[in-house]
Specification:
The protein is an alpha/beta fold and about 240 residues long. The chain contains eleven helices and eight strands. A four-stranded parallel sheet has the order 2-1-3-4, sandwiched between helices. Helix 4 links the parallel strand 3 and strand 4.
Length: about 240
């Protein structure tokens, strides 16, 4: 019997739906019953994680814990979280529930280690960058980290907050040229892969038509790990 995945969502709603779609599309299924059961708590009341980390804003822990407990009570066997910055707060939640949480930074770092990556760039929100989530996970695997400079980091934040979270989906309105320059700059610094370490970034890159084998989407990594943990088969290709 397949295990039930619990998705602690709402951070943001588009990223939550994207993770669900990834799991569905990557599962080797020929009928409804072959797909993995999923429970989703799309809790949009969770306060902004970056604001909490950097500016002393309202903590998201209480709402995140409430969501986790609802998922556990509803029958989830384990939890995944489609928000990178939220992982900073998971240690305050994991010991208060009785089911495991599968983490994006750890799963992504494991994959890069297997692939033999030595140097990776991290595109993420200010909160994720300052928290050191990915830097620590990569360092444990012996992987060096490259971050955008100040102007490039503002571009990353703008992509997330001024475009995707506001529902801007018209490719002509997205800053494609600036993002392309940033990608080139990071690659020139020796980054073998670029982690799109904010769940809105893969959406933005897809809308802009930016594709490369060097781009690693931790959402996909998490989806594949969740499929494996649930006991299902992953679609090949």
């Amino acid at each position: 019997m397949l295990k039930t995945i619990g998705i602690l969502g709402g951070m943001g709603p588009a990223a939550t739906v994207d993770l669900m779609n990834r799991i569905i599309s990557l599962t080797d299924a020929e009928r409804d019953q072959d797909h993995i059961p999923m429970l989703v708590d799309n809790n949009t009341r969770i306060p902004d994680r970056t604001d909490a980390i950097l500016h002393g804003g309202e903590s998201p822990v209480a709402e995140m814990l409430a969501s986790a407990r609802r998922l556990e009570a509803a029958g989830a066997d384990f939890i995944i979280v489609p928000c990178h910055t939220a992982h900073y707060f998971l240690p305050q939640i994991e010991n208060k529930i009785n089911i495991p949480v599968l983490g994006m930074p750890t799963e992504t770092a494991k994959l890069l280690k297997i692939k033999g990556v030595k140097r990776a760039s991290v595109l993420a929100t200010d909160g994720t960058v300052e928290s050191g989530l990915y830097g620590a996970a990569l360092e444990r695997m012996g992987i060096q980290t490259v971050y955008p400079d100040a102007d490039e980091q503002r571009l990353v934040m703008s992509l997330v907050y001024d475009y995707i979270k506001k529902g801007v989906t018209d490719p002509s309105k997205l800053p494609r040229e600036a993002v392309t320059r940033m990608v080139g700059d990071l690659s020139s610094q020796g980054a073998e892969v670029l982690l799109l370490a904010c769940t809105e970034l893969p959406i933005a890159f897809s809308l802009m038509g930016l594709r490369s084998e060097a781009f690693v989407d931790p959402t996909i990594v998490l989806a594949k790990s969740a499929i494996r943990m649930a006991g299902a088969k992953r679609r090949r290709g």
